[in-house]
Amino acid sequence: MGLFTFIIVLSLLIFVHELGHFLAARYFGVTVHKFSIGFGKPIYSKMYKGTRWQVAMIPLGGYVQMKGQDDMQPVSHESGEDSYNHKKPWQRIVILFAGPFANFFLAGVLYFFIAILGSSAIAPTIGNIVENSPAQKAGLQVNDTILEINGIKIKSWDDLSKIIKDSNEPLRFVILRDNRQKALTLYPQIMDSKNIFGENIRQKMVGIAPAPNVVTVEHSLDESIVFAFEKTLEASKMIFLGLQKLLQGIVPSSEVGGVITIGKVISDASEVGFVPLLAITALISVNLGVLNLLPIPALDGGHIMFNLYEMIVKRKPNEKILLNLTIGGWVILMGLMGLGLYNDINRMMNGWWG
After folding, report:
1. Is the same domain home to 277 and 172?
2. Could you tell me the residue range of the domain that residue 154 belongs to?
3. Residue 75 has pLDDT above 70, yes or no
4. Each residue of 174-209: pLDDT tens digit?
5. How many structural domains are present in the chain?
6. Residue 214 banded pLDDT, cuts 50, 70, 90
7. Residue 102 has pLDDT above 50, yes or no
8. pLDDT tens-digit map of 28-40
9. Mapped to the 3 state alphabet, what secondary structure does the chain carry?
10. Average pLDDT for residues 62-88, to the nearest whole number?
11. What mean pLDDT do residues 326-353 have?
């Protein structure tokens, strides 16, 4: 069941990504010869309105084959108004960006449905208080539940964390203790902490940690739209930042995962429930969108970079340089895929997954 779910989720993400390219290409009048989910020998193929739609045997990717555009032959050209390389650079950029954008859009839709169904979050209940902290001095206690901060209703621990971190004034807490409400005023302080990458940082805090309680947060229609936008943006920033930390050596290369890790994560999420599966699918969709925007030749981001160059200097990149850069891009991609697979196998051998 886990393998089936993995194939379905991955195929959906690939289909949406390639559909973005397809729709943009057709909008600008580019002929699309083939729309493929997977690589290798086709197991299903049908010709429809000038495009061959197919599902291939290896479900680890996909592609849209447009007239005048071939990643394996980056310097090839085809004449005609319906050719990709006949279009203006800005039009090609739109076609290229449409794939990653489709993944971001899908993530937003999934996060919207998560909000409508009720998202899971850490409850705003105190599990620990730091000694001599603003929280202890103000009289907060373990098991207090924060209901409001400065008149803003608190639904989850994330809500109060954002308010505290961005605060520029004293905070008036309304808490629930022993079924009675109580108001307290706290003065946040700059304190030492660690971010998700283990780096030492300093930020405004009051000295409290959450209890291990999970709540289901209900959202209105308007709140669901805001939730979807914020979660998609937050996931994008986290992935971009993670890539930056990886290049800086702060995140070790052993943390890079491959297709086996993705399959395991999807399988585990599907066993927990439908909403966790939606959340993981949304996160992977954002990840796919971000990675495809990296300025690596052979990826959408690399092609966008070449077209931006053409827009700025008013001429196409040198064909020899373009070919060499594309080959280099494929080498980098194969290296990253190999690293991910190597790490996956290491995790399996070390019994990380039981």
Report:
1. no
2. 127-217
3. no
4. 999 999 999 999 888 887 777 777 777 788 888 889
5. 2
6. confident
7. yes
8. 999 999 999 988 8
9. CHHHHHHHHHHHHHHHHHHHHHHHHHHCCCCEEEEEEEEEEEEEEEEECCEEEEEEEEEEEEEEEECCCCCCCCCCCCCCCCCHHHCCHHHHHHHHHHHHHHHHHHHHHHHHHHHHHCEEEECCEEEEECCCCHHHHHCCCCCCEEEEECCEECCCHHHHHHHHHCCCCCEEEEEEECCEEEEEEECCEEEEEECCCCCEEEEEECCEEECCCEEEECCCHHHHHHHHHHHHHHHHHHHHHHHHHHHHCCCCHHHCCCHHHHHHHHHHHHHHCHHHHHHHHHHHHHHHHHHHCCCCCCCHHHHHHHHHHHHHHCCCCCHHHHHHHHHHHHHHHHHHHHHHHHHHHHHHHCCCCC
10. 80
11. 74
* pLDDT of 272 strictly over 50: yes
Angle, vertex CA 318, rays to CA 315 and CA 321, nearest 5: 145
Q: What is the pTM of this model?
A: 0.84
Active-site positions read 18
CATH number of the domain at 164, please: 2.30.42.10
Residue 284, both tokens: 């992977």
Same domain assignment for residues 212 and 260 = no
